Structures are given as structure tokens and as C-alpha cells.
Amino acid sequence: MPLIRAEPFDFAFDPDSIGLVVIDMQRDFVEPGGFGASLGNDVALLRAIIPTTRRLIDGFRAAGLPVIHTRECHRADLSDLPPAKRNRGNPALRIGDPGPMGRILIAGEPGADIIPELYPIEGETVIDKPGKGAFYATSFAQVLAEKGLRQLIFAGVTTEVCVQTTMREANDRGYDCLLATDATESYFPAFKQAAIDMIRAQGAIVGWTAPTDDILGALA
Ligand code: TIU
Question: Is 28 designated active site?
Fold first, then answer.
């Protein structure tokens, strides 16, 4: 089996069962005026990973391997938005409120869509998810089974929230998970580093980590 040079040790993979999962690269998280900014965050930090994530996506596309995208968003009637989530904290705008990019984190609104730089191409699956994890209340597990995927490379935002939650969900379901360290970002650099450290600690207790160049090198 081919190997990705990774931490805490090399990641052996089967090209027939590996896919890329790009988490929540939505305008609402990486552009001003969206959900991330409404929580008081500096979105500029997240934009730095766009070129690397693009290279990773291009590498999977060139190798003919699946790319799956997720979007954190809710129905327009908010029926899948628990009050506990809507009311959390003291944001400038709550989920469902009108903002400069349409209603915050609502499916179909411009802000909830994936940024143009990383937009899915025809044939790529997009999973809309009401939670932080991609398995909760979605068809994600079914899509992975249909595609025969057992090994998942992760990119996207934010490292310690939706990315880590989804990796933990996947790990418990028996998937091998690897995080692309330079194609993920947090509003809090210390949290990104802590998430990376805790994912690969204890002999890859949640999964592996590797930079994009090492992932692409192994695919090629
Ligand atoms: N706030 C934050 O860091 N993240 C989220 O709310 N969602 C995702 O991580 N996608």
C-alpha cells in the first residue's frame, strides 16, 4: 500500500477507499459579514489556507479520487436549529438573521455557500449539516458507504470545531482519518495547534496529520 509521510507514523492507504472531505469552506466563515465575523472573529486568518486547500482539492481531482464538501447550514424555517444553538453566546447576528450575505447560515443564502475559490465541480457531493459534525442528521455515512470510502483526508474550518468533531465521529465509526495541517485553520491559532496535537497523540488516538505536500506526493 502507498504511504503518506505523516505523524505520529506513516499513513498506509488504499487508493480505492480514500477520499477528501473539505469541511465548511463557506463564505459565512471566511468572509466579512458572516457567521464567523458575527461571533467576533477575524476571518482574515482563515483565508490564508485557501490556496493550499485548492492545491489539495486539485490533487484529488487529478488523481480521480472523490472530493466531498460540507456546509454548516439550517433550513429557512429554522426547524433543524435547536434553540440552544441559536441562542448561544451574544453574537452581533444570530443564525437566521439577515446579514450582508443573506440570512446567516441558512441553506440557499449566498453566505452559506462554498467560497468561489473552492467551489465543487459537477459530480462532487455536498453535505449540508445542521451540526458541527458531518454525521449528525445527514446522509454522510450513506454517501461514504456508497463510494466505498474507509480512509478520509480532512481539510477545512475550523480545526477544533467542525473539523475535529467530524474526525472524532468518523474515527468512532471505523474510518482512518488524516488531517491536512496546512489546509485547516482556526480563529484561534493555539486551538488549531492543540487540536492537531490531541488528534495525533497516543499513537493516533483520533487520526494522523500531514502537510499537503506529503499528501499530494503520495497520491502522485
Ligand atoms: N465557530 C467556529 O469556530 N466554527 C463553527 O461554528 N463551525 C465550523 O467550525 N464549521
Answer: no
For residue range 117-161, what is the model confidence (pLDDT) as tens digits?
999 999 999 999 999 999 999 999 999 999 999 999 999 999 999
Pocket probe for ligand 1: among 88, 158, 165, the residue whose CB has the most ligand atoms within 8 Å is: 158
DSSP-derived secondary structure for the chain: --EE--BSS-EE--TTSEEEEEE--BHHHHSTTSHHHHTT--THHHHTTHHHHHHHHHHHHHTT--EEEEEE-B-TT-TTS-HHHHTSS--SS-TTSEEBTEETTBTTSGGGSBPGGGPPPTT-EEEEESSSSSSTTSSHHHHHHHHT--EEEEEEE-IIIIIHHHHHHHHHTT-EEEEEEEEEE-SSHHHHHHHHHHHHHHHHSS-EEE-HHHHHHHH-
Q: Is 85 in the pocket of ligand 1 (CB under 6 A)?
A: no
Q: How far is the CA of 131 from the centre of ligand 1 (A)?
A: 10
pTM for this structure? 0.98
Q: Tell me if 63 sits within 8 A of 4, measured CB to CB.
A: no
